[in-house]
Amino acid sequence: MTEKFTDGPWIAAGPSFGDEKPRYYNSVITDKNQCDDDFCDICDILNECGTETMNANAFLISAAPGMYECLKEIVSLASTETMKGEDVYIKDFTKIRKVLQKARGEI
Fold first, then answer.
1. How many CB atoms lie within 10 A of CB 84?
2. DSSP secondary structure letter of residue 31
3. Residue 45: C-alpha distances to residues 4, 18, 34, 77 (Å)
4. Could you give the 3-state DSSP secondary structure of residue 48?
5. Cα(82)–Cα(80) distance, rounded to whole angstroms?
6. Strand spans (E) along 9-79
7. Any residues with CB less than 8 A from the CB of 41 and at least 6 apart, and which?
8. Residues in a beta bridge with 29
9. 3-state secondary structure of 42
10. Could you report the per-residue pLDDT of 76-92, keeping only the tens digit for each?
11. Residues 80-88: contacts with CB under 8 Å, at least 24 apart
12. Burial code of 6-21, b = ≥16 C-beta within 10 A, e = fewer?
């Protein structure tokens, strides 16, 4: 299956009320290079669990494209090259493959 989700980077965003940084992060967006508007919404995050959890969720979601690409690279490397030594050793890639499949909507 090909990836159909919005390319990264995704950015945690929120209202700044004139401050330099957002006071809290309640959405994840892309930059204007990904769409015709100034930005594209990926998702809005509800503040039902408190600001700290809402911010953490925004940061985790915004990191998803980068994490997805890293996992793809790890699986690709392990599939095409013999990894030697103690620096890199992963016995079972089943969990990584399942996460990638979930991200693509396959499971």
1. 8
2. -
3. 22, 21, 20, 35
4. coil
5. 7
6. 10-13, 27-30, 40-44
7. 27, 28, 29
8. 11, 41
9. strand
10. 777 665 555 444 556 56
11. none
12. eebebebbbeeeeeee
Going from N- to C-terminal start, the domains of the chain cover 10-103
DSSP-assigned letter for residue 65: H
How much is the pTM?
0.74
| pLDDT tens track for 17-49 | 999 989 999 999 987 666 666 778 999 999 888
One-letter amino acid for residue 31 of the chain: D
Question: Which two structure tokens, joined as six digits, stand for 48?
Answer: 């039902």
Question: Per the structure block, which two tokens stand in for 13?
Answer: 């965003």
Q: How many residues does the chain have?
A: 107
Phi, psi dihedrals of residue 24, rounded to the nearest 5°: -155, 165
72 and 100 in contact (C-beta within 8 Å)?
yes
Residue 8 main-chain phi, psi, to 5 deg: -85, 180
